[in-house]
Amino acid sequence: MSKESTKKTAPTIIITGTPGVGKSTHAQLLAQESPAPLKHINVGDLVKEKNLYESYDEEWQSYEVDEDKLLDELEPIAAAGGVILDWHTCEIFPERWADLVVVLRCNHTKLWERLESRGYPLKKIQENNEAEIMEVVLEEARSSYAQEIVVELQSEGTEDLEANVARIVEWVKAWQRDQASANDSG
């Protein structure tokens, strides 16, 4: 374990998944229930608020993110810990930031309904649904981070939400114990 990670008082958790799987809802509830103080950052909102984009794509109704600006903005926050990064992609975040990467998954029929209720254009719903079926975000996480920190969780309803957050809270408690023992022995 690096010295950098032992200085953190709270972990950096990435919650990722296809749009509509429940990332923000999970992150908000986790921020409330975590035994360690965690700040929820909706990366998509941050991109808009801080103008961390190059342009807006009308057809896809999404921003072309300036990854360098985004990473510069997040570096001090993520490196310090105590943050939940909530975004539909994770591979741009440096491996050193992540203590846990949670990939939320959802049945594609349920996902279609969620995206439709958001008013997404059909083309965007189709692309996101295909990405979910093909496990694009899960594969991205698995290829970007150590296997032991990537966790795949189902997110199809309130029961899943509550169980997932409880599971992550237990992980945070274990992380805190590990940090305390590492600091005691260091």
TrEMBL record:
It is found in: Cytoplasm; Nucleus. Residues 42-65 are annotated as: NMPbind. Keywords: ATP-binding, Cytoplasm, Hydrolase, Kinase, Nucleotide-binding, Nucleus, Ribosome biogenesis, rRNA processing, Transferase. This is Adenylate kinase isoenzyme 6 homolog. It comes from the Eukaryota. ATP binds at residues 20, 22-25, 118. InterPro entries: Adenyl_kinase_AK6 (IPR020618), P-loop_NTPase (IPR027417). Interacts with small ribosomal subunit protein uS11. Not a structural component of 43S pre-ribosomes, but transiently interacts with them by binding to uS11. HAMAP family: Adenylate_kinase_AK6. One of its GO terms (biological process) is rRNA processing. Belongs to the adenylate kinase family. AK6 subfamily. Pfam families: AAA_18. The keyword ATP-binding applies. Residues 117-127 are annotated as: LID. Broad-specificity nucleoside monophosphate (NMP) kinase that catalyzes the reversible transfer of the terminal phosphate group between nucleoside triphosphates and monophosphates. Has also ATPase activity. Involved in the late cytoplasmic maturation steps of the 40S ribosomal particles, specifically 18S rRNA maturation. While NMP activity is not required for ribosome maturation, ATPase activity is. Associates transiently with small ribosomal subunit protein uS11. ATP hydrolysis breaks the interaction with uS11. GO terms for molecular function: AMP kinase activity; ATP binding; ATP hydrolysis activity. It catalyses: AMP + ATP = 2 ADP; ATP + H2O = ADP + phosphate + H(+). Its EC number is 2.7.4.3. GO terms for cellular component: cytoplasm; nucleus. Its main location: cytoplasm.
